[in-house]
Design a protein that fits this description.
heterodimer, A: about 240 residues, mainly alpha, 2 domains, about 75% helix, globular, B: about 230 residues, alpha/beta, six-stranded mixed sheet, four-stranded antiparallel sheet, 8 helices, about 35% helix, about 25% strand
Chain lengths: ~240, ~230
């Protein structure tokens, strides 16, 4: 039903929508309407996949709810409106952080985590950024994935070999001593491979992905939403 | 017959950290287009010979690749003529998609997109992995990674092919295919480090036996090798 969106279309629109979310003003009715309607329209255009969103929201809430603890700190640290204001007023800052953080993180996590590494790499390489920045981003993504896989392997070995409490304890104690040299040796060998294969840049591609009209619509919607949030924020 | 001549004369290599000698007075000569196997048990120095050839170790003695002595000044030119397979294939896979990784050496030759795509498809199908064209490198099995790395090393038909344990993760069918590919390759000098006697017999015209970092025999027969390793 929905046309395919190019990887850079997805990434660019996600970035703009998240900036829009971070600039939104949940304390005013207009700000709230802009944020929610923007989110709805954009999620329809990008054919947002809502599966697993519940779990992601719970995780983000676990991350952001502790900000409400700052209410008590703010009361002690600051004088003026925080110390003398109503309970509702003191909840203002953490509520804004929660609203903005929840929407922006949800948009990012749900879309980017569902992009395949090949898609993400293509998206980064096609971003309108200086080559050096794209290369750094691409190698960060590639090496983070290497690290994750290396760590998963070690954890699987721990699961299999740690048959009793004592051996699990001994293995866990030794993990840093095993993990770090493995990662260092791995990166050393990869550097050797880069030298032998004559690569001084990962920014080598022979096929560029095409940005379809629908992808441009998606980017444009993201841009409009970002612009509305920024303009409304500034005017206010 | 093309390919590069390789000469090792009194080559010694010491490990950087504790100065342990890992290659001792290594001497051998490989003619243009010759296909040889470096045979040896684990830790005998096969990988070090190959990586020294690719300029990854400092050495004492004399190494010549083609007509060029292996020096820092000539390293770039020499590396351009080497197709290298590392013994841990995933270390040399540096791109997220199979197609891009295999195409690397062709991209450096500034070929057209269409030509590159054709050549990549051709080599992947020769190795029986054409279905992996758009696959994510990280999702492949060890054997598949080895095939992708092999494809990357062989795609531009380099004059010198250094293969470190190329058959270690391959299934019997893929191993047979690789033997056929190496036998039919008349463009390259092939130096292969392995301890798989059956694989070596499949394509190599000569086997060099290594032990404790030294060359024990410059041309050993399968029977003598089996006797030496007490396999009979």
């Amino acid at each position: 039903m929905f046309p395919k969106i190019s990887p850079q279309g997805k990434l660019l629109s996600v970035l703009m929508v998240s900036i829009g979310m971070l600039m939104s003003d949940p304390l005013s009715v207009t700000g709230m309407i802009i944020a929610l309607s923007g989110m709805l329209i954009w999620s329809f255009i990008i054919n947002f996949d809502f599966s697993g969103v519940g779990r992601i929201i719970v995780k983000i809430l676990i991350l952001l709810v502790p900000f409400f603890l700052t209410v008590w700190v703010l009361k002690f640290v600051f004088r003026g409106e925080y110390s003398t204001g109503s309970a509702l007023l003191t909840l203002k800052i953490p509520s804004v952080i929660l609203f903005r953080g929840l929407l922006a993180t949800m948009v990012n996590v749900t879309v980017i985590s569902k992009m395949s590494p090949v898609e993400l790499n293509t998206a980064v390489m096609d971003l309108p950024l200086p080559p050096i920045v794209k290369e750094i981003l691409a190698s960060v993504i590639f090496n983070l994935r290497n690290l994750r896989i290396e760590t998963m392997r070690i954890l699987k070995a721990v699961q299999l070999r740690g048959s009793n409490k004592i051996s699990i304890y001994r293995i866990i104690i030794n993990i840093p001593a095993v993990w770090l040299p493995r990662v260092i040796i791995r990166s050393h060998r990869s550097t050797d491979a880069m030298n032998v294969r004559g690569i001084d840049s990962l920014n080598v591609r022979f096929r560029k992905s095409e940005c379809s009209v629908y992808s441009n619509v998606c980017i444009f919607t993201g841009f409009i939403f970002m612009a509305c949030s920024v303009i409304f924020g500034v005017v206010r | 017959m093309t390919g590069l001549k390789v000469v090792f004369e009194e080559v010694n290599v010491f490990s950087g950290l504790d100065s342990v000698q890992i290659l001792r007075n290594v001497n051998f000569s490989i003619s243009n287009g010759e296909k040889i196997c470096l045979m040896g048990l684990n830790g005998s120095g096969k990988t070090t010979v190959l990586s020294t050839m690719a300029g990854l170790w400092k050495y004492d003695g004399k190494i010549e690749i083609g007509s060029l002595p292996l020096t820092i000044g000539n390293l770039k030119k020499i590396r351009e003529s080497i197709g290298y397979l590392f013994n841990v294939p995933e270390d040399q896979l540096l791109f997220t998609s199979v197609e891009e990784d295999v195409a690397l050496s062709l991209m450096k030759k500034s070929m057209s997109e269409k030509e590159i795509h054709l050549k990549v498809s051709e080599i992947l199908s020769l190795l029986g992995i054409s279905n992996l064209n758009a696959a994510d490198i990280h999702e492949l099995s060890h054997g598949q990674k080895q095939k992708v790395a092999l494809a990357g090393a062989m795609i531009c038909k380099p004059p010198l092919l250094c293969l470190d344990e190329p058959s270690s993760a391959l299934d019997p069918v893929s191993k047979r295919k690789l033997i056929d590919m190496l036998s039919e390759n008349n463009n390259s000098t092939i130096i292969c480090a392995t301890n798989d006697i059956e694989f070596a017999d499949g394509f190599a015209s000569r086997k060099i036996l290594m032990e404790n970092g030294s060359v024990l025999s410059d041309d050993i027969s399968t029977m003598e090798l089996k006797k030496h390793w007490k396999l009979d």
